[in-house]
Amino acid sequence: MLEEIKIGFIGGGNMAEAIIKGLLAGGVLPENITVAEPLELRRVYLSDTYGIATAEENSSAVSFGDAVILAVKPQVCLKALREVSGDVSTRKLFISIMAGVKTKTIEAALPKGVRVVRVMPNTPALVLAAASAVAPGANTSPSDVSLALEIFNLLGTACTVEEKLLDAVTGLSGSGPAYVFSFIEALSDAGVKNGLPRDISIRLAAQTVFGSAKMVLETMEHPAVLRDKVTSPGGTTIAGMHVLESEGFGGTVMSAVDAATARSAELGKD
User: 194, 177, 195: which is closest to 256 by C-alpha?
Assistant: First the structure.
């Protein structure tokens, strides 16, 4: 299905580039992709690097694409949508990755009946390891959602949620990489404190997080079950876990997600 779809991008920034990389790796031909990007240097880079067509005008991407990915900054979204509204038909699917911009806002700015899917990917999309959540708009069909899932599964893993849950997605997986980077840094610092060279400590810490995450995804066992398997009675791990629990590790992480979720909801009201 995906190989037969023409895809236009409004915006050619880092996240758009990540999606393009995923599409090409997934078998989409370069001639089936067009990017509208105002910066000439960026257009030249994308064209030279990926062999895709680029254009300065947003209308070019809309006219070209069966699906149009909205990848501009949220603060310029209404301006961009107004520019292309005359080129829009209900035959086209709009997929928005604009943080905080609700599907009803996009639907209101385009002709009646337009099909909109909202997606919240996270920054590991840049290395094709994203966690993305897909939320359908008022007029989307199951096939529209399937297409969005097909696209974003090429960037990592994608799941479907109700749009009202996207603030929670933002708090968890949208902001989550920052929490994980901080944890890796803390593990690395602890290794250095205990005598490990910095470069080795970072490699060990990052691989430990990567490997642990892979175990969860591949076994689909509850994290608590996997934790118990590495926690021997009277051993080193339970001694470390005692400190984490006494310092409120789990509650602190939950509070961080709560705070990020609440802030996402606030920003969505602006």
Answer: 177
- Hey, is 69 helix, strand or coil? strand
pLDDT digits (tens, 9 = 90+) for 55-83: 999 989 989 999 999 999 888 888 888 88
Q: Which of 132, 166, 200 is the last residue of a domain?
A: 166
97 Cα distance to chain centroid: 8
The number of distinct structural domains making up the chain is 2
Q: Where are the alpha helices (DSSP H) in 154-235?
A: 166-169, 176-193, 198-219, 223-230
Question: What's the CA angle centered on 136, arms 114 and 105, to 5 degrees?
Answer: 55
**Among 140, 166, 192, residue at a domain's last position:** 166
pLDDT recorded at residue 270: 62
Domain containing residue 96: CATH number: 3.40.50.720
- Could you report the per-residue pLDDT of 182-215, keeping only the tens digit for each? 999 999 999 999 999 999 999 999 999 999 999 9
